[in-house]
């Protein structure tokens, strides 16, 4: 390539870059000149760490003796990036890279300013044992956190851009040795065909690559816990990590994953078995209790003991509406309370719960709008919903409860049973990236997390 | 054998405890019911073994695939339709029986058609699922039911009201010639394995079939048969037992959990059998659906890339079952089920010779 | 546009389906406060042949707070030609739906026993909502009086009659418990006769006594057992393992409380003329009361004395059963159940039973003299 031509080529490229970014006010094009050394810097001020730029590029430029020295120094820097096309450079510039024109070459350096790399305490899935810090909102920091917990050369990180407009980077992390190829292929192809302008959080991805237009149960698991991420990586799952999102999603995820708390691996055998049992009991109770109440009061009062029947009948004296409206009424208020306490600032939540829970409940029974027993039931349901460790699942359960209530209202105990089986069939009919969602595993964990045949 | 095979067999065994089988057996209590039951265990096990062995030779293939390969087209299709018919009657018997039961015991104020529709609503969703999903559902529901079954078993054998003298009185009728209808009804308990004609598609690996496994099925089946026949007699006396319309429902009401959440076992039993009957219908009609789907392959039933055939079959099932539930009386139901069991046992030997034929063709 | 219409249509279809179901649900849906629970049913005989049955229902009226005011009871009565017509009439007497699901006690008046038992029982067996585990008893002087008696100890929300029969409440050797299904199988079965407790009340209706039993044999003949015979029956039928026996020795009278017992019997027919009913009794107990000081070393002697007394008691009762031609223990059933069926066993036993002799072996063991010697 002739010298002159090449030179103009570089100039043209630089020109093009500047023009592309021009209308913004925070674009900087800074020539550096000392004696016979000269260079040009192009970057966006608001995403580049100025102090670091000064430290790494500008200061050495003035201190080093000649242009050759500068070039050798710059090319040895660890944060130099590959230069593939000018579109790519443009994208990198928007993410916080600096283009340096030295002699007749364009060099690209990543000198990002990141304000979101503080590692936060676990917030969504707190545990007593196990690590107390979760992830940050910065991809690099998060990758660091994960790598620091999983030292294995076969751990692979692939990055790609997603979001037609926002171009967020997404890391696909997996352990080469254990990952199921089919699952990985499927996830990648679905991610590539994703056609969304802006992707903000990793949970959004879960919704987009779900196969179904309307789905009820999650088939990927969202988590903020690094220990869960590592545990699942070791089990051969794929972890998706989006820049700017403090949570990861893990795929494939089956039903039992959602019922596992990380503490199950840390505690004593019987203690964890017991807490697991409690969790499933909570799941069951929160699902069927409202329906059971309707079935037992309005269809089959002879099922339970006579004393219970009489005391329910007594406490329902004066309640104007049929049992299912009574249940629905109290349940909806409970849901509103839950929603309110999520949205409210932390300081007010306590008051809201007290006012809502205590006063509303007592007043409703006093005013004979609801029976005493229904207050107990709604309370029990509310508590047991929170026992489910992963939020998405507990939200899904919250919804399923109403389906069962409907079934019980229509056909009593028989309806409740059939509804339960129906839900079961719905869940059993799903799969998560080819893995059956609701299947009982009898074999040991080692046998289930297959080692890939080599 | 894969554990799912046992589920198929076991669901069929359990589901018929509540349906017509005990009624037929008890009607023949002094006409050779006991000998028929003993004979049935052997015949049932032999059939079970044959069907398991046969399908083990063709892993991952159901009967339609085998027919397509080794049989002339029209003949195979006709045969498959015939089998589908038999299976749909099997499911229908369970459906109608349970609808009657619900109407009688759990929701007496509800119209029968409504009860049947609710059952059908969930079953329709179930049979349209993938074969593997059907099996996962069966497994989970069965595992949930198991503790309850064990509880009821323990309770019924340990209750002080169980009068062994009545049972012994019934046993004194051993020396009687077997009756064919009792034989066919009790053999029916062992026929769950024949669902492999479709479910074998799921069993893609070859398994070993050992004597131990067959003995286990025999033991379970024998236990179920013994309990089905003798516990109602022990609780309700030998005389007059044949007059009871639903022997086992009646018997379950004679048990009481003094300290349980639910005092009357009747309700536990009804809910349990709702689940198990559901599974039985699900399995049978899933087989029907898949068989019919393999027969009707025309492109005509299509609407915007969606194959409508399964939906049409489901529609036919809805129509048929609702009409039949409306017109059948309890007496007719038990009579027709008895006829069905007799016919089924005879035609099974035809099916077995078909297996033999396919096996010979496949070898050559 | 087409897509939109389709989606809208789908939603509409779903909504209309749900709405249809909701309208449908009116049929089975009946709230618990619109029902009234029948706790016990009584059937008496009237002298009027047109309307021979008199049905009494005891209903529980729930009140706002069970703990404070308790459950109140109310009664409905109707005479009619059949039980079901009576019930149908009674339905119009309340503003709520009668729910028989919790009816756990069925009391027959004594007069009704002269009717065919199968006929009376039929209604209760046939109805789906009456429990097979309901208790059956005989009311004296009438079922109505027994049902209407409200003992002082009857607590809020718990029906006294339930507690009498329920082994969780009172336990006594004098109470014979008879379930409806047990009653049925004894009525139907040849070779075993129904036995029911007798519930009697006094005029003030403040007390219910259950300490006797009544046996009905195949010819509808009734035999009433007194307290002692009832206790002996309970021991022999393994219903109740406890038995108090007053031993009158030559020099010393004492009471033994048996707390564990097991009774077995066999029927031996070696010669057709003289069948032997052999009964073995194993009993373990302690001395409860004595008019003299007991001697620790003489436990063996006490045991023998007790055995003798028990043997005497049992033989007496068995002979009485034989004389009256009743068989509540099921000797006939045992005879049938140990011999191969020849379709004539019933008749054979009818002939054999009056000729049978009893051989009672009692092996009582007194373990202790109680807290003092």
From TrEMBL, chain A:
InterPro entries cross-referenced by the UniProt entry: Spore_Ger (IPR004995), UPF0353/GerABKA_families (IPR050768)
Subcellular localization(s) per the UniProt record: Cell membrane; Membrane
Chief place of localization: membrane
A cellular-component GO term for this protein: plasma membrane
GO terms (BP aspect): spore germination
Membrane topology value: Multi-pass membrane protein
Pfam families, sorted: GerA
Source domain of life: Bacteria
UniProt entry keywords in alphabetical sequence: Membrane, Transmembrane, Transmembrane helix
Transmembrane segments: 277-299, 319-337, 369-390, 402-428
Database matches in PANTHER family: LEUCINE ZIPPER PROTEIN 4, SPORE GERMINATION PROTEIN
Family: Belongs to the GerABKA family.
Listed name of the protein: Spore germination protein
Organism name: Mesobacillus persicus
Source organism phylogeny: Bacteria, Bacillati, Bacillota, Bacilli, Bacillales
From TrEMBL, chain B:
Record-linked Pfam families: Spore_permease
Family membership noted in the UniProt record: Belongs to the amino acid-polyamine-organocation (APC) superfamily. Spore germination protein (SGP) (TC 2.A.3.9) family.
One CC-aspect GO term: membrane
Transmembrane segments: 5-26, 32-55, 75-98, 110-128, 140-157, 177-199, 211-231, 265-287, 308-327, 339-359
Signal peptide per UniProt: none
Keywords: Germination, Membrane, Transmembrane, Transmembrane helix, Transport
Localisation: Membrane
Protein name, per record: Spore germination protein
Automatic annotation (TrEMBL), chain C:
Topology of this chain in the membrane: Lipid-anchor
Compartments reported by the entry: Membrane
InterPro entries in the record: GerAC_N, Spore_GerAC-like, Spore_GerAC-like_C, Spore_GerAC_C_sf
Gene3D superfamilies linked to this entry: Nutrient germinant receptor protein C, domain 3
Keywords: Germination, Lipoprotein, Membrane, Palmitate, Signal
TM annotation in the entry: none
Limits of the Spore germination protein N-terminal domain: 30-200
Gene Ontology terms: biological process: spore germination
Span of domain Spore germination GerAC-like C-terminal: 213-370
Keyword Oxidoreductase on entry: no
Principal subcellular localization: membrane
A GO CC annotation given for this chain: membrane
Family that this chain belongs to: Belongs to the GerABKC lipoprotein family.
PANTHER family: SPORE GERMINATION PROTEIN B3 (PTHR35789)
Name of the protein in question: Spore germination protein KC
Organism: Mesobacillus persicus
